[in-house]
Specification:
Distance between the termini: 71 Å
Mean pLDDT: 89
Largest sheet: 6 strands, mixed
Order of helices and strands: HEEEEHEHEHEEEEHEHEHEEHH
Low-confidence stretches: 18-28
Length: about 260
């Protein structure tokens, strides 16, 4: 016959075990924070009090398709990538990978989308730039923390003028404080549409790069490897059932070109 204390001890042990299991299960089901760039509309931005954009819809749809709860938090891009690198965020988007990014982050097989990076200048000086070395000695506005492709990022000789966001670069270009600005086609066209003072002022004179943009996963967050696998599963599902293309079509500007994919 069991001693009453031993029965109580076993019950207490069982209760503690169930509490621990329940706590771990609840923690596993908590939405994991992923960083979203706060000022890169129409792809990703904190706009009208909420995080929205084409790649926001893609990321949400992919994780929903794999039944994986996440929580998006908005940060400036450079800050977002720093937090993801340290493991304070599970990931960050939108990233155009280079060798440094590939070393510091886990990259999924599935990109979010692709778009052209263009070199812009004032409309009155629209000479095409067929060789980036012609930028030697010229002032070019670049957005802090962005990757523009190896050919541009390793180019020596030009004067890089760092700005907090693309809008600032175009404002500097309009006031002749720089000779060129580099920006993605989609975000630049959206800026021109949203900012009447910039409409009709600029023309693209070169395509610098056409990268694929990714959700980059941290190498230091405890759940990033799991999330990467769930994201890839979700992306395969939404590509297969048409939801991915439907998102691209919904964000395509009227009469414009949708991002490549």
């Amino acid at each position: 016959m069991s001693h009453p204390l031993s029965v109580s001890s076993r019950l207490l042990t069982l209760m503690l075990f169930l509490l621990v299991v329940g706590s771990l299960r609840a923690r596993a089901e908590e939405p994991v924070p992923i960083g979203a760039e706060d000022d890169w509309y129409p792809f990703t931005a904190l706009k009208d009090g909420r995080i929205q954009g084409m790649s926001v819809d893609i990321v949400k749809a992919a994780f929903a398709a794999s039944e994986t709860p996440i929580r998006l938090v908005a940060y400036p891009y450079s800050r977002c990538m720093q937090l993801a690198k340290r493991g304070e965020l599970a990931g960050c988007f939108n990233t155009a990978p280079d060798a440094r990014i590939a070393e510091d982050f886990r990259l999924p097989r599935e990109p979010l989308f692709s778009d052209d990076i263009l070199l812009w200048t004032r409309r009155e000086q629209p000479d095409p730039i067929d060789d980036l070395h012609r930028l030697n000695g010229r002032r070019v506005a670049v957005t802090l923390g962005y990757e523009y492709g190896e050919a541009f990022d390793t180019l020596n000789g030009m004067i890089r003028v760092q700005v907090r966001k693309d809008l600032n670069g175009f404002l500097m270009l309009s006031h002749r404080r720089v000779d060129y600005a580099v920006a993605y086609r989609g975000t630049a066209e959206q800026l021109f549409q949203d900012t009447p003072a910039l409409q009709g002022l600029f023309v693209a004179v070169a395509r610098v790069h056409q990268p694929q943009l990714y959700l980059s996963f941290s190498r230091n967050h405890p759940r990033s490897e799991f999330l990467l696998r769930r994201f890839e599963l979700g992306m395969r599902r939404i590509r297969a059932d048409g939801r991915y293309q439907a998102i691209l079509d919904a964000w395509q500007p009227p009469g414009g070109d949708s991002p490549a994919h």
